[in-house]
Amino acid sequence: MLDHVSVQCDDLGAAREFYETVLAPLGITVSMDFGDVLGMSGPDGVPKFWLGKQTTGGTQREIHLAFSAANRSIVDTVHRAVQKLGAEVLHEPKEWPEYHPGYYAVFMRDPDGNNVEVVSHS
């Protein structure tokens, strides 16, 4: 349904470091860099996740982003990467049967306070 998502950041450098580290195990990398806007893509090279410097005034509201992992091992690898960064882990990797059997995820905060999830459905 969605074609792409863009997240506005207070500190684009910190956001870049966070997302490059957290999304690397998923095969997601920066594929476009316009200085104040970054496009990230998977193996197809088409940027579908964008980061930009926040340009609107006021308070930024928390968003929830969930990235798909091929298996539980990748979720665990992301968890270790988050710990190495020193970022806040909201929920350690575990199965969430209330969503559906096999739903295995880790939840963390990005530098702007957003709730970021990496989930495997296997």
From TrEMBL:
Residues 1-121 form the VOC domain. Keywords: Lyase. InterPro entries: Glyas_Bleomycin-R_OHBP_Dase, Glyoxalase_6, VOC_core. GO terms for molecular function: lyase activity. The keyword Flavoprotein does not apply. It comes from the Bacteria. This is Catechol 2,3-dioxygenase-like lactoylglutathione lyase family enzyme. It comes from Kribbella rubisoli.
